[in-house]
Amino acid sequence: MKKLLLLPFLFLMLYAYAQGDYQAALSEAIQQLRAAKTAEDQQPVANKIQRIAEAEPKEWLPAYYAAYANTGLSFLLKEETQRDAVLDKAQTYLDRALKLKPQESELFALQAYLHQARLVISPMARGMKYAGLATVALEKAKELNPHNPRVYFLLGQNAFNTPKMFGGGPAAAKPILETAKEKYRSFTPSHALAPAWGEQASLALLAKCD
């Protein structure tokens, strides 16, 4: 009887241990991702996060970071086909995360970032399509959480890179990036693994608007 009573307790302990392992492994990978400066640095970290996502199919954050890591990797690669390939992979993980948490503002912000990554591969050919898709995703992200600072950073980035003749440019981007600055200043991540990227890039872009 004592053995039977112990079984549920042991299962709970094993479950908690597994959860702790996933969170610790993901936290370590996020730190490595922040330190990565080249494609050679970032690729193995992206692979590591993908393995975590595959091991935790019911958790949205590993899939989120797998999408984020591959989106960031695309900016570090040179070949157009390679960049699109890693963005295809990023989209697969992002779609998975959206199925798990369809009302999460951070996922729509990341979708906009992924669209921007597609755009910069070939701005002349892709500008109209992906700028529009990024804007739609950011409006959804803002609707879900108007205090999400990444929304304003990415909106400002969109505006900064839009030609002045179409209503963009540094002057148009500056007030949006000023809002991003304030949002980052007041932003507190809800937990240790919560998305918290973009502040330094946003400030660097704002400095170019003066």
Q: In brief, what are we looking at here?
A:
This protein is an all-alpha fold and 210 residues long.
Mean pLDDT over the full residue set: 90
How many strands, what sense, and barrel or not for the largest sheet?
Answer: none
- Rg for CA atoms: 19 Å
Helix content: over 70%
Low-confidence stretches: 1-19
Taken together, the total number of domains comes to 2
User: Could you tell me the number of beta strands?
Assistant: 0
Beta-strand percent range = under 5%
The H/E string reads HHHHHHHHH
Class by alpha and beta content: mainly alpha
Q: CATH topology of the largest domain, which one?
A: Serine Threonine Protein Phosphatase 5, Tetratricopeptide repeat
The CA-CA distance between the termini, in Å, is 74 Å
CATH class of the largest domain: Mainly Alpha
CATH architecture of the largest domain: Alpha Horseshoe
Protein name: Tetratricopeptide repeat protein
Signal peptide: 1-18
Keywords: Signal
InterPro entries: TPR-like_helical_dom_sf
Written overview of the protein:
The chain has 210 residues and is mainly α. The chain has two domains: 1-102, no CATH class; 105-210, Serine Threonine Protein Phosphatase 5, Tetratricopeptide repeat (Alpha Horseshoe), CATH 1.25.40. It has nine helices and no strands. The protein has helices spanning 2-35, 39-55, 60-76, 80-100, 105-121, 123-144, 149-161, 170-186, 199-207. Helix 5 (105-121) packs parallel to helix 7 (149-161) and helix 6 runs antiparallel to helix 7 (149-161). The radius of gyration is 19 Å and the shape is globular. 37% of the residues are buried.
